[in-house]
Amino acid sequence: MGKNKFNILSIDGGGARGIIPAHILKRIADEFEIDNFYEEFDLIVGTSTGSIIAAGLALGEPVEKIYDLYLNEAEEIFSDKNGFLNRFFKGKCLKSEYKKEKLIELLKNVFKDKKMKDSKTKLMIPATDLTNGDVYIHKSNYDEEFVRDTDTYIYKAVLSSCSAPTYFKPEKIKERYLLADGGLWANNPSLLAYTEAISRFEIEHENIQILSLGTGIGKSYFDMDKKYWGALALIKKLIDSLLNLQSINNNNICTHLLGEKQYLRLNYTSDNKLPLEKLPENWAAKADRIFTYNSKKIEEYFS
């Protein structure tokens, strides 16, 4: 990494599509012989599925272990085996689409009893505070003022950030906060990380360097000739679309603020919508293509 640089790793939300940044990070680790990403980055931030990867790397978990989790478990966590119509006729259409038990089991297996204070580098996990209608950011104790989240279990913080509306029910934290997906306001958390570097650490603008990993951007969520615009038909697509737009907006702002030399964004665009519960077709080829076509930029970033 460049000397005197404040290096940030930012990972988007995107459900099962988290396998894309996980695969890219695995390629980076193999290519540049990186054993511990927490030694390479001053701040790691991840939203929703990105928080799983971010927390794992911040705690020193091998990137291969995180990658294997997505490879073997991602679609099982987010698969809708019953389908919407089946749930509708059983009177369950107003409940969350997926059960948390599988996700909780996996997160506990990965993070065990680790807490936010156990992070080996600065760690941020965005969530949404439904109780107070506000943002909520889980932070490791990299500042003596940060006492609220010190003893929060990592798996609970990640679970709250993963609780996307219609997918998982909100998560209670400390019996005082009802938290939902951080992607509602920070699906691409790069801008959040930039703001923290500027305001909390008083890092000079020119010394900030961000590696931002996306989970894909969809370009087609609604049909021009769609006849039915009722809430039941649209709410899930609308949520996916809003998360998509939030990532695009923050990417545009960070690109404008930092430029390509300080803000390296690795992502891909699809002509179709990208639902959170499914792996993209040919995902391994997509991830390898992203890495290959940006290999020189990545090398410069880690030089």
From TrEMBL:
Kindly give the NCBIfam families that the UniProt entry links to this protein.
CBASS_lipase
Q: Listed GO molecular functions?
A: hydrolase activity
A GO BP entry is: lipid catabolic process
Keyword field contains Hydrolase: yes
Keywords of this entry: Hydrolase, Lipid degradation, Lipid metabolism
**Active site located where?**
48, 181
Name the domain of life this protein comes from: Bacteria
The listed location of motif DGA/G is: 181-183
* Statement: the UniProt record of this protein carries the keyword Hydrolase: yes
Residue positions of motif GXGXXG: 13-18
- SUPFAM superfamilies per the record? FabD/lysophospholipase-like
The protein depicted here goes by the name Uncharacterized protein
CDD domains associated with the record: Pat17_PNPLA8_PNPLA9_like (cd07199)
Cite the Pfam families for this sequence: Patatin
> Which segment of this protein is annotated as the motif GXSXG?
46-50
